[in-house]
Amino acid sequence: MKARVTVTLKNGVLDPQGKAIEGGLAALGFAGVGHVRQGKVFDIELSGRSAEQARADLAEMCEKLLANTVIENYAIEIV
Amino acid sequence: MKARVTVTLKNGVLDPQGKAIEGGLAALGFAGVGHVRQGKVFDIELSGRSAEQARADLAEMCEKLLANTVIENYAIEIV
Predict the structure, then answer these.
(1) ipTM above 0.90?
(2) pLDDT digits over B19-70, tens only?
(3) CA angle A77, A38, B50 (to 5 degrees)
(4) Domain range holding B65?
(5) Is B44 within 8 Å of A36 when comparing Cβ atoms?
(6) How far, in Å, CA of A28 to CA of B16, rounded?
(7) Could you say which of B11, B29, B49, B67 would form a disulfide bridge with B53 (CB–CB 3.0 to 4.6 Å)?
(8) Domains of chain A: total
(9) What is its main location (chains A, B) (predicted)?
(10) Which three-class secondary structure state does DSSP give residue B62?
């Protein structure tokens, strides 16, 4: 089974990388571009689990390793 | 309008960061975890465009700045 975990910064957390991309897009001449926020995505292959169990394990992986839950949100999607 | 651009490494391109995460998850005791691939996600606010035009502009942004199309694929989603 394949899963996709998306980790994004929480609202209100500064995102200098996103700001730099905003500046880059403006410099390239793209008008009407508002805020840009950058996040991470993890494509993970899992075996020997039900979808239910996979979801629980992925949440634990996020809490322990994939996301910094002080400043980041995560979303789990079984593909 | 909001859009999400997901940039992932093409198949066959080495992903040392993904490998490190695989090792980390194994070290934390998660069994049955196969390949892990890491990518990037960009949440972009756009204004003054139709969905069609936004999609075209986002593709151009990916080609010019957001993705290295030699080694990366990108997917555009209007939210």
Answers:
(1) yes
(2) 999 999 999 999 999 999 999 999 999 999 999 999 999 999 999 999 999 9
(3) 85
(4) 2-78
(5) yes
(6) 31
(7) B49
(8) 1
(9) cytoplasm
(10) helix
